[in-house]
Each structure stands twice: as C-alpha cells, then as structure tokens.
Amino acid sequence: MGLIKINSGEIKQLNFNLRGSDNKASGDFVMQYSNLNVDVMKIDKDTKKVKKRGLLSMAANMVVKDSNPSSGNLRSETPEYDRDIYKSFFNLVWKTIYTGMKQTVGIP
After folding, report:
1. Where are the domains of the chain?
2. Which DSSP string do the residues of 32-78 spell out, in sequence order?
3. I need a labelling partner for 32 at 20 to 30 A (CA). Which of 10, 16, 83, 103 fits?
4. What is the pTM of this model?
5. pLDDT digits 0-9 by tens, 6-63
C-alpha cells in the first residue's frame, strides 16, 4: 500500500469484538463514519518532498466508500490477521483493527 493522506472524515462509532490465539486474531468489526476523503501521495525523487498524485487521488475517492452507512445499512466486517510471533500482543490487536478499518472503507 502506498502513502495515503486523509483530508477529511469523522468516525462516529467504532465497535469490535476480537478472538485470538497464538497464531492469529479474528472478530467482528463495525465502524460508523462519514465524509471520508483521501489523497494518494508520492515522494518526489529529486526534492524528496511528498506530493499529491492527482489522477490516482481522484480514482481512490471513487473506490473508497465515503461513509458507513451509505445506503441505510451499516456495513460490518470480519477481519483476520496472522500474528508475527516476534511482535507483541498489542501489535496483533492493532493490526486486526486496522484490517477491519481498511475493509470497511473498501481498501483491499
């Protein structure tokens, strides 16, 4: 995944219920949000500054779901994440929640 800048958005509610083992975590995830708008960014090779990628940003905003619920029904996800045994339990929890967030907004 590339660099993403969140321009706007409001998380109204976030609920999750995770189950885990020594190897993975999974669970139920619901995030209610609105007005999500993102920019796809790139690092300029010459100046090393971060710049917006205009066409890709426009395409990303067509793919990303800008709100949940969008048509009256609140979408829910069931994220799963395989544990890196060299990282902490909290890393596993965060990565599972992050996976649910990405799934909810439509990022593969």
Report:
1. 3-105
2. EEEEEEEEEEEE-TTT--EEE-HHHHHHHHHHS---BSSSSS---B-
3. 83
4. 0.84
5. 999 999 999 999 999 999 999 999 999 999 999 999 998 999 999 999 999 999 999 9
